[in-house]
């Protein structure tokens, strides 16, 4: 064995023995880097694919996409939640691809106007010098990130934008400036106090001009118990959210839910807020498998009703149909089994 | 280059180019295999370490452990949740190690007695032939799994057992037979109807004999809206849980919460139940960082109060103290900063 050969050989051995010793990791996604021309920087994106995405036993499916701001904070629990809630037979939502967007300059990206504020705790410090870049950031989402996701993953034409605090402010601003970009918007305890409540004025202007929001748009707003926060930070967080609520409810043209969380503060409300939000956005998606044995047509009726509400066609997934078929077979509901076999063959022609 | 050398060389190249192309994965845990003598089988265990576990900037810390039944179903969202809820400065719970236990023979492991039942949907099918092995399974937990975890990971002497359905039945049974094994028990929609409500009888017997449960034990029970389920499956799920609730509340010797989820069914209640459960178990853990600037002693008072309730000493983590120090420094609270610097040096002597 010459020495170079020996060196390589030992390296190979080392490599294999290391990988042999390593425990199997549990992974929930992968990181991708996108070079953004619009933002003139590289952006790190965390991508989660639902459990069935690479299932060789079913036809390749397309999935709605949830764009999640502050990705580094919310990605782990959000993806666990969306997978769990999408599990048949009690699925509260469709399986979704989740795209977490990691921050670089958070204030720059998420705020709609240039505005500054003296720190309420230390007036010597001026905050938010880099604010006002949200229009650029939404262009990045629409013109660079979404095409990247659609090109590399199988996406259905339904998307959600979810943010918290400045991220909630951003989501509301996108709804006002580009309502067509997303189907549903989630704003957890949004910072609508921003720049003398500039988005409240903008909402009023929008409704004066357009009378109503486009059809089939959903907005979910959570509100934390910020009494303590308002006192300490001199903030009108609560008042701005409540003013906004009144305007939106009066307009009546959004599929809108506002929920106040008595036991949550600004920093903790995202977790239950995001759960409550998907339950609201996808309300009507869950169907009752047990009722289907007697009335198999109910499935398509339920999906038609939900699709009408969502403004996009949702069909029962192949995985759900397989679950239904197994249920009917196990319990001897032969007629219903035949019905769903036909439906499955129609929706999902067999893989060769 | 001889041919063998060439072959190895090409393999090496291939290996490196593959690993170079692979995206960085986002991982939340690792799988371990334990050979159980008690169960006479290999068991797959999923282990999640909290974010700071391997942080080289802090002293190696010890963490409470949450043992999660039906690991393969609950691990992903549970670990995301516990990390999020443990994030300073608004931590609702301490950072925890989460140990998910994957099923092999679920009914065997989780049921306390041998009992059978005809399928309510198809009376020709007899269910639960393999039931009644829970005493063996709890011995596995106590004598094999816990020592394995303590030996391989840095654990604090505080542990939680969490289960759903048969897993909830199991958790209640462990509380009745070995209350000293865990500090807190979570039973999501537990199958207390099991074997003619054998655990209801057992609870009555326990209380007749012992008068009360040991000090500092916590039990959380969630209940789904099973009206539909009861109708279809001829089950007395709801009635059994409510009977149990009455007995436990009357005894008054547990730190006990029962919560009914109007909008959840048996298959979906675990998610909000597990969230509500940790909020209850660790109630009093969250401290208000803003109040600490004026009254730094509050931190130790809060922790002393929580420790008293939990029956175990909990101290502010080094990570939380660092967060507090940064907050005091950023906002010019010099006196408080000094106070917490002293506290930190006392609790966490510097790493050499």
Automatic annotation (TrEMBL), chains A, B:
What does the UniProt keyword field contain?
Hydrolase, Signal
Q: Which residues form the signal peptide?
A: 1-22
Q: Which residues form a coiled coil?
A: none
Q: Which InterPro entries match?
A: AB_hydrolase_fold, Esterase-like, Siderophore_Hydrolase_D
Statement: the UniProt record of this protein carries the keyword Hydrolase: yes
Q: Which PANTHER family match?
A: SIDEROPHORE TRIACETYLFUSARININE C ESTERASE, SIDEROPHORE-DEGRADING ESTERASE (EUROFUNG)
Which family is this sequence assigned to? Belongs to the esterase D family.
The protein depicted here goes by the name Esterase
Q: Which organism is it from?
A: Chryseobacterium vrystaatense
What taxonomic lineage is listed for the species of origin?
Bacteria, Pseudomonadati, Bacteroidota, Flavobacteriia, Flavobacteriales
